[in-house]
């Protein structure tokens, strides 16, 4: 089963897209604004995002940039915005396709199918101690299943995609909590790192004092 999130503020179009795209192999969840999309993205993972640009509480391009910074998910824009600069901004934010309204439903279905085919079937990190499947959300350390929160999964994904690289604290905060509208306590990152260390082992994440953290994984 593939899971698609639709972000569209036009009620009739949103409901029509759900009816047209949902089938035995695709489950569709649709929301009308950025706030709703951000809430569900914190709780669930999706195989594809279908986003509008103009929304009552902001721009879908901002959400695209936030999501693609921390996870590998195809994003298709479906919008009335036909200026070249908007299309360029969308692709620079991480979109894989940009479809202008009015559109052909058949073409949209084919482009969605193509994006889903191109997506890597698994985003997996493995070494001698750890196996993390970020698609199926299955994580293990030394062969033992580990349960991670959505925030811990985001941080771990960033670490694994930058193994051996020093990641500054502010960079991590921006990537993990960029979609939060409320103030983020400065200790939130330290707490999340501690929880990961408690679950995976203290030596897998190194602290570079005055700079940030580095993912070491299993010791050589």
Descriptive overview:
With 220 residues, the protein is of the alpha/beta class. It is built from eight helices and 14 strands. The protein has helices spanning 11-21, 34-43, 60-68, 84-92, 105-118, 150-161, 169-177, 188-200; strands at 2-7, 26-31, 48-51, 54-55, 58-59, 75-79, 97-100, 124-126, 130-133, 138-141, 144-146, 167-168, 205-208, 212-215. The chain has a five-stranded parallel beta sheet, with helices on both faces. A four-stranded antiparallel beta sheet has the order 8-9-10-11, with no helix packed on it.
Short summary:
The protein has helices at 11-21, 34-43, 60-68, 84-92, 105-118, 150-161, 169-177, 188-200; strands at residues 2-7, 26-31, 48-51, 54-55, 58-59, 75-79, 97-100, 124-126, 130-133, 138-141, 144-146, 167-168, 205-208, 212-215.
Question: Which terms summarize this structure?
Answer:
elongated, four-stranded antiparallel sheet, 8 helices, alpha/beta, 220 residues, five-stranded parallel sheet
């Amino acid at each position: 089963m593939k899971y698609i999130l639709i972000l569209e503020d036009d009620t009739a179009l949103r409901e029509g897209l759900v009816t047209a795209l949902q089938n035995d192999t695709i489950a569709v969840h649709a929301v009308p604004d950025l706030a709703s999309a951000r809430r569900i993205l914190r709780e669930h993972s999706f195989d594809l995002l279908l986003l509008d640009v103009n929304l009552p509480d902001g721009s879908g391009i901002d959400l695209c940039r936030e999501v693609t910074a921390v996870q590998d998910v195809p994003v298709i824009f479906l919008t009335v915005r036909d200026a070249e600069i908007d299309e360029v901004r969308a692709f620079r934010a991480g979109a894989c396709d940009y479809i202008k309204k009015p559109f052909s439903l058949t073409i949209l279905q084919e482009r969605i199918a193509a994006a889903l085919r191109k997506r890597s079937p698994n985003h997996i990190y493995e070494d001698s101690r750890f196996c993390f499947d970020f698609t199926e959300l299955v994580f293990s350390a030394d062969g033992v299943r580990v349960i991670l929160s959505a925030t811990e999964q985001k941080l771990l994904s960033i670490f694994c995609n930058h193994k051996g690289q020093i990641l500054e604290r502010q960079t991590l905060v921006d990537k993990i909590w960029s979609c939060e509208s409320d103030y983020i306590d400065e200790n939130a990152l330290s707490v999340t790192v501690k929880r990961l260390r408690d679950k995976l082992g203290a030596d897998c994440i190194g602290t570079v004092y005055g700079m940030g953290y580095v993912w070491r994984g299993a010791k050589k």
